[in-house]
Amino acid sequence: MLLLITGLFGFAGLFVDDKVMVYTCLFLSWVGFSYLCYINRSSQLSRAVVGIIITVVYGGLCVRARIVDSNRAQEDSYRNLIVEAYMPPDMKIADSVFTIRNNGRVGIGKHEVSCFVPYLAAENGVVMFEKDAKTLVIWPEALPIRAGGDAESDSCLKPLRNNNGEPLAVCADLVLQVDYELESQPGVTRQKKFRFVFRESEGPNWHQYPLEYKGSYCSP
């Protein structure tokens, strides 16, 4: 019996990514230990104490397995959440489209996207934006973004347009922020930021840059 119980632990280790298999093996091994405790010839009090200890230990193992699985899901989703930026051929940055893509293994539920433009250099001069303010539209949640490559696309730069049209940008420094919850963990919000830079001299494309740089990639 002990050999069988030990084998169940090893079997669970082979299927660490399969939650159903892990919890099934833990349950069966708990049943096995409980049965051994029941048929043991020790006093009833001793068996009761050992049974309680076994149940507490297995309960802790199940909680630990749940925490590890939740953390792995969060890290997988964070690592595989990507943003792709597309500039129209006429280089009107207000018509740029941003695609949020979920390449992770868990669907994204509630989410919103915010755009920040801390620096914009225009042909008619330099327009400075307040560095850490949400100066542009918050793109509210729509449908869930399913796992395995599902995506959502929209523009968050349309507010750059005004009564005189949109500025003819020669350089723009953009930070796009995604706040999201996993479908399997509602109420747990994570945040990921991306930085994109457009330079007229480099053609009609946004290029991704490190967030950590404290200055602006558009600075003279």
Please characterize this protein's 3D structure.
This protein has 220 residues and is α+β, with helices and mostly antiparallel strands. The protein folds into two domains: 2-79; 81-209, Immunoglobulin-like (Sandwich), CATH 2.60.40. It contains three helices and nine strands; from the N terminus they run αααβββββββββ. The protein has helices at 2-14, 19-39, 44-80, and strands at 81-86, 97-102, 108-122, 125-128, 138-139, 150-154, 169-182, 189-199, 206-209. Strands 3, 4, 5, 7, 8 and 9 form a six-stranded antiparallel sheet that branches. Helix 1 runs antiparallel to helix 2. The chain is rod-shaped and about 90 Å long. The model has no long low-confidence stretch (mean pLDDT 76).
User: Tally the helices: what do you get?
Assistant: 3
Total E-strand runs = 9
Number of discrete domains: 2
Question: What is the N-to-C succession of helices and strands?
Answer: HHHEEEEEEEEE
Instruction: Please give the largest β-sheet.
Output: 6 strands, antiparallel
- The low-confidence parts are none
- CATH C-level name of the largest domain: Mainly Beta
Separation of the first and last Cα atoms? 75 Å
Q: What structural class do you assign from the helix and strand content?
A: alpha+beta
Q: Please tell me how large the radius of gyration is.
A: 27 Å
What's the rounded overall pLDDT mean?
A: 76
In the CATH hierarchy, the third-tier topology of the largest domain is known as Immunoglobulin-like
Rough shape?
rod-shaped
Beta-strand content estimate: 25-35%
CATH architecture of the largest domain: Sandwich
Share in helix:
25-40%
